[in-house]
Amino acid sequence: MLKTKEWFGEWFDSPYYHVLYKHRDDKEAKYFIDRLIEYFQFSENDLIQDLACGKGRHAIYLNKKGYKVVGLDLSVQNITFASLFENQKLKFYVHDMRFPWEGERFDYILNLFTSFGYFETKGENQQAILAMAAGLKKGGKLLIDFLNPFTVINDLVPKEIKKIKGIDFHIQKFLCDEYIVKNIRFEDKGEHFQFQERVKTIKRVKFLEYFEHADLELIDLFGDYNLNPYIAEKSERMIFVLKK
After folding, report:
1. pTM for the predicted model, two decimal places
2. Do 156 and 173 meet the contact criterion of CB atoms below 8 Å apart?
3. Selecting from 3.30.450.20, 3.30.70.100, 3.40.710.10, 3.40.50.150, what CATH number does the domain 7-148+203-243 have?
C-alpha cells in the first residue's frame, strides 16, 4: 500500500521505521552528545531543545547528564514513547519544525542526525530555519547536523536487502531532482508495504543563504562527530554551529 501524505509524517510514525533503523549506534550518539556538552559547556540553567527528537534518545541522555531539555517531533508515536521518560527537567511535545515553538526561550537548539531536508520546497526549508532562529534567545546557539552531499552521493549503494526481525527490507537508493531517494519495500504478515524517504542534497552554500536570511551567524563548521574541520570532498557530515 503506497502512502500518499508527506512521507516523513507517515514513515516516521510507522513501527517499521524503528525496526529498519534499530541498528543505529547508541554509543556513537552518546559520544557525539558528550562532545557537544564539552564544546558548548552547557550549564544546568540552560534550556536545550532537541528538534526532531525521534523517540528522544538524545534528549533523554542529555537529561540524565543533568540538563533541562524539551524534545519536539512530528511523530505522535515517537512522542508517546518519549513521554514515558518525562520529569521536571524533561518534556516532549508533538510539533512541526516549520513553525516556531515558544519564541526566544531556548539557549540551545540541536537538530541532530540529518533531521532536515525533508521538505518539498526551498521556502519550507527557509521557514524551518526561521522557526529555529525564532526559538532562540538573543545570543543562543543552533546546531544543525546534516549529511555531506558530496560523500553520500559518491558512496551511494543502489540496491540492498536487509533482513531484520524476519522481515526482508528491499532498499533502492538513487539521486532524483537533487534528492537522495530511498525506496523501501517489504512484506509482513501477508501484507505488502512501500515507503519512500527523500532527503534534499542541500549544499553548504544554500545553508549559508538560509542562515543569512534568518540573521544567524555561522561560528563553526565541523565534518564529523569528532568535531574535526569540514572538508567538502572528504567529510562525512556538515555540522553547522550558529549564533543568534
Report:
1. 0.87
2. yes
3. 3.40.50.150
Other C-beta atoms lying within 10 Å of the C-beta of residue 231: 12
| Residue for grid cell 557530515 | 237
- Measured between alpha carbons, how far is 141 from 241 in angstroms, rounded to an integer? 7
**HEC per residue, 25-49:** CHHHHHHHHHHHHHHHCCCCCCEEE
SS3 64: helix
- In the structure grid, which three cell numbers stand for residue 153, read together? 552521493
Q: How far apart are CA 214 and CA 227, in angstroms?
A: 24
Q: Say which amino acid occupies 1.
A: M
8 Å CB contact between 152 and 201: yes
Yes or no: say if 174 and 184 are a contact pair by the CB < 8 Å rule: no
The model's pLDDT over 27-66, given as tens digits with 9 standing for 90+, comes to 778 999 999 999 999 999 999 999 999 999 999 999 999 9
Domain residue ranges of the chain, discontinuous segments joined by +: 7-148+203-243, 152-198
